[in-house]
Design a protein that fits this description.
It is found in: Cytoplasm. With about 80 residues, the chain is mainly alpha-helical. The protein has two domains: about 40 residues; about 35 residues. Helix content is about 80%, strand content about 0%. α1 runs antiparallel to α2. About 0% of the residues are buried.
């Protein structure tokens, strides 16, 4: 997440003055970006991929259990 904030700040610095006012604006922009990103409840790519893998395994297990249930329900 900090990488995204740093990328955003680096891009925004192009438009900020290079004096002390620019430094203050950068500080405020960094705080605003950090606050906004944290409110958005974003997750990292790694966490997203890990949760996607868990979901895939869960889906496979559910399908197996559904098949077993179907087989059991067909028995006399």
């Amino acid at each position: 997440m900090n990488d995204r904030i740093e990328q955003f700040i680096a891009q925004a610095k192009q438009f900020l003055p290079s004096d002390s006012m620019g430094k203050e604006l950068e500080k405020n922009l960094r705080a605003l970006a950090s606050s906004t990103f944290s409110k958005m409840d974003l997750v990292s790519r790694e966490e997203f991929e890990a949760q996607t893998a868990v979901l895939a395994r869960t889906r496979e297990k559910l399908e197996q259990l559904e098949q077993q249930l179907e087989q059991l329900s067909q028995q006399p």
